[in-house]
Amino acid sequence: MSVSQPVVTSPSAVARVGSRWYFVVTIATVGLFAWVPFVHAAVRLGRKSLYARAVVFGAAAAVMSTLMSLSPKDAAGKTVGTAGNVLTSVAVVLGLAVVAVACVQQAKLRREILRHVPGERLDGPDPALAAALAARERRTEARKLVASDPLIARDLGIGRPDLPRNYDDGGLVDLNNAPAAVIASVCGLDPATAAGIVEIRTAAGGFSAVDDVFTTVPVNAWDRLRDRAVVLPG
Questions:
Q1: Can you tell me the distance from the alpha carbon of 234 to that of 200, in angstroms, rounded to the nearest whole number?
Q2: Count of structural domains, the chain
Q3: Based on the domain organization, do 138 and 44 belong to the same domain?
Q4: Of the residues 58, 93, 115, which one is the last residue of a structural domain?
Q5: Fewer CB atoms near the end CB (10 Å): N or C, the chain?
Q6: b/e for 194-225, b at 16 or more Cβ within 10 A?
Q7: What DSSP designation does 181 have?
Q8: Burial 36-57 (b: 16+ CB within 10 A, else e)
Q9: HEC states along 16-50?
């Protein structure tokens, strides 16, 4: 005789069922409390823009309540008169529209919440990505300064992370003046290749362009050099 095993509900399944209260609240109140799930989602996801949505749906609820309260009613509380019927109809149509729009948006938010890891920010760019993009922008500005005024660029220490300086060039290295160890670190080169660059610049009296070193470095390092290297007068 086989013994049936108890069915264990996974936490994710429980979460999926529990999160359906978004729709229950919205539909059961005909949109009057459609704003509540958006406040909950704003707190869970850390997304301030959702508070604005909650305000919009809250305003719609206030309009519906006002229309219903303005509808003429008899002693039994039933709507009477043409004006009452019109106001009630408008409130009902608005409520149905709110329910439809809110449920569509809440369905998407519900999926995000089910995938959300507590503590993870979803309302902005990844901090590491933002830092990398900011550094790239600083390198671009520093290169412009190297091209337009190399003397000021040298005074600012562009391309010399081995020296004390206050200017942030975004992670550049000066192939004409930086030590081999710094070139290797910034450009991701092995020590021997970086030492070869220094030997060539000493023999040639310096480089006139970053591309001058390409004959001595692996092809897979060219993009990194173009991104991180500059050449300033020695």
A1: 14
A2: 2
A3: no
A4: 115
A5: N
A6: bbbbbebbeeeeebeebebbeeebeeebeeeb
A7: H
A8: bbbbbbbebbbbeebeebbeeb
A9: HHHCCHHHHHHHHCCCCCCHHHHHHHHHHHCCCHH
Instruction: Mark which of 82, 115, 148 sits at the end of a domain.
Output: 115
Q: How many CB atoms lie within 10 A of CB 124?
A: 10
Tell me the DSSP string of 196-229. Answer: HHHHHHHHHTS-SSGGGGGGGS-GGGHHHHHHHE
- 96 and 152 together in one domain: no
DSSP summary character for residue 71? S
The answer as to whether 201 is a domain residue is yes
Q: What are phi and psi of 4, to 5 degrees?
A: -70, 140
Which range has the top average pLDDT, 6-20, 78-92, 112-126? 78-92
Instruction: Note if the pTM is more than 0.70.
Output: no
Domain co-membership, 220 together with 161: yes
Burial of residue 73 (CB within 10 Å: 0-12, 13-18, 19+) is middle
16 lies in the same domain as 105: yes
- Reported residue count of the chain is 234
Place of tokens 């000066």: 174
Domain boundaries, position 62 = 11-115
**DSSP state letter for 176:** T
